[in-house]
Amino acid sequence: MSLVPTVHLPDDLAAALTRRLAATAPTEASAQVDRLIENYRGATPTAAPVLRDAGDAAAYAAYRMPATYAAARSALAELRARTGAWTPRAHLDLGGGTGAARWAVADTWPGESGPRGTVLDWSAAALDLGRALAADASAPSVRATTWTRAPLSGAPELPAADLVTVSYVLGELTPGDRASLVDAAAGAARAGGVVLVAEPGTPEGYARVIAARGRLVAAGFRVLAPCPHSGPCPVTGTDWCHFAARVPRSALHRQVKGGTLPYEDEKFSYVAAVRPDGAGTPPAPAANRVVRHPQTRKGQVLLDLCAAAGDLTRTTVTKRHGPLYRAARDARWGAPWPPDDQPDGVPDSGGPDREGAV
Ligand SMILES: C[S@@+](CC[C@H](N)C(=O)[O-])C[C@H]1O[C@@H](n2cnc3c(N)ncnc32)[C@H](O)[C@@H]1O
């Protein structure tokens, strides 16, 4: 079993990418990818869109969109596990580019009446390609997406929504614009609504997520995932909290990006937080979250957990824990612990041993 969960692109998105990008010769896309990588390595933010034209947008969609889709889809799956029957009716995707989060939202809440959505971005080229890709979607909600050109610097005025995604965007903004965009996203979320911020799983990306998390909590939001609490993050020093999704590489992807492996692992950091509405039973975070690859030894599994008490702990689950041991053998980095279908899995006594902080 792979240690990193695989996230497959939905067939209709994979087909749309192949069809819409067929016009772009691989060598041309490859050159555009090289330029994009250079641009992203350089000093961002920029004063103008990085995705300047159709070639840039095509290169981005071929080279990055499968990975950003996988990160958003993984984070949304963890959010959905916390929110039960809740279904966002309106989705606002800030800096949505070619629409990765729109597809991920539609796949997380499938159905005829999936969340309707608006993508805001300052790159006309990215929006044009996003609109063209979405036209090929099987989900009516993706096809019906509104694509709007809008700068997100300053303090943008945003329409109200039930779910606001800010995925792989903050790194392209100045620190001041990051803060004001997160505040604007919080302001746009209706009561009971959620803001989800995702960034690359690097120390810098994690720092941006933690800063956003702090602003959301200060605005009265409750963290639902990945953290089991809304208090200070216990991951400090040189460590950073992140997760991973395995993305199979398509022929198109290999053409533009090279590489011999049939997959790549996208590392990402994220936070999803809800604005409590004071009604009914509010959604709650997991009791603990697995924050590293579980270590399987003979007859036991070691789980590194972020715990509701606000600390990092190591739990050892042994064969004597029966069904819980079997669950621990299937546990994966990024999952809740105990699994949601075994809510009583950590008894106060006779259960897994809790050791000191890792
Ligand atoms: C790395 S891409 C991420 C796109 C998409 N969210 C995804 O996950 O694939 C960053 C996006 O943010 C947009 N962006 C960056 N700065 C912006 C700004 N100041 N105003 C509006 N959009 C911006 C870019 O045009 C680009 O589409």
**How many structural domains are formed by the residues?**
2
- Name the helicity range: 25-40%
Looking at the overall shape, the CATH architecture of the largest domain is 3-Layer(aba) Sandwich
Give the N-terminus to C-terminus distance in angstroms: 25 Å
Bound molecules: S-adenosylmethionine
Summarize this, please?
With 358 residues, the protein is α/β, with parallel strands linked by helices.
Would you kindly provide a written description of the structure presented here, covering whatever features stand out?
- The chain is an alpha/beta fold and 358 residues long.
- It has two domains: 11-274, Rossmann fold; 288-355, no CATH class.
- It is 35% helix and 23% strand.
- The chain is built from eleven helices and 14 strands.
- The chain has helices at 11-21, 26-41, 54-63, 65-83, 100-108, 124-135, 140-143, 175-188, 203-218, 251-257, 323-330; strands spanning 90-94, 116-121, 146-149, 161-167, 189-200, 222-225, 243-248, 263-274, 288-290, 295-297, 300-307, 312-318, 336-337, 353-355.
- Strands 1, 2, 3, 4, 5, 6, 7 and 8 form an eight-stranded mixed beta sheet that branches. Strands 9, 10, 11, 12, 13 and 14 form a six-stranded antiparallel beta sheet that branches.
- The radius of gyration is 20 Å and the shape is globular.
- The two termini are 25 Å apart.
- Bound molecules: S-adenosylmethionine (SAM).
- S-adenosylmethionine binds next to α4 and α5.
- S-adenosylmethionine (SAM) binds next to α4 and α5.
